[in-house]
Write a structure and sequence with these properties.
With about 160 residues, the chain is mainly alpha-helical. Helix content is about 70%, strand content about 5%. The chain contains 6 helices and 3 strands, in the order ααβααββαα. The longest helix is centred in the C-terminal third of the chain and has 35 residues, at about 130-160.
Length: about 160
């Protein structure tokens, strides 16, 4: 593991945390490899590692790292960056990764809302299926507003707590 030289971290404790947190992410629906890679990045002092470093720490293949990073990047949970003067990429987790991931979900919810509106129209609002669709649509519309308001509150809280915008 490549942590800062002055770091007195217990590698076994870090490994236990990574596996434990990854298990929680898997239980919530994330794939096993992306969960392990995300937990490893999150627990690294720099918040960034190369494919080789991730493979070594997690004892996984470069292909497993690549697939996990591809998924995490699509979810806006990690970003790729080039090492200065090198062709190697580093994968970085940012402090606002949860914000970015949740904000990305808002676009998905809006697409679902459009499909559900079409479903209500197609099925007929007065049919049992149409009413189910309408209730599902109302739920997502409610969630969208609540998430937007929550994210506004989070930005204020984050600035107060961490001095960041």
């Amino acid at each position: 593991m490549t942590e800062s030289a002055g770091s007195a971290r217990d590698a076994e404790a870090v490994s236990r945390f990574v596996e434990s947190f990854a298990a929680q992410l898997v239980e919530a629906g994330m794939g096993r490899m992306p969960a392990r890679v995300f937990a490893a990045l999150l627990s690294s002092d720099e918040g960034a590692m190369t494919s080789a470093e991730l493979g070594e720490q997690l004892r996984i293949s470069p292909a497993a790292v690549s697939g996990a990073v591809r998924y995490l990047a699509q979810q806006h949970m990690v970003s790729r960056e080039r090492e200065p003067g090198s062709r190697r990429e580093r994968y970085r987790v940012h402090g606002n990764q949860w914000y970015e991931a949740l904000t990305n979900r808002e676009a998905v919810i809006r697409r679902w809302e459009g499909a559900l509106r079409e479903g209500v129209t197609s099925l007929g609002a007065d049919t049992p299926a149409g009413r189910r669709m309408a209730e599902t649509l109302a739920f997502f519309e409610f969630v969208e507003v609540e998430v937007e308001q929550m994210m506004d509150r989070w930005r204020v809280h984050r600035a107060k707590t961490f001095g960041q915008e």
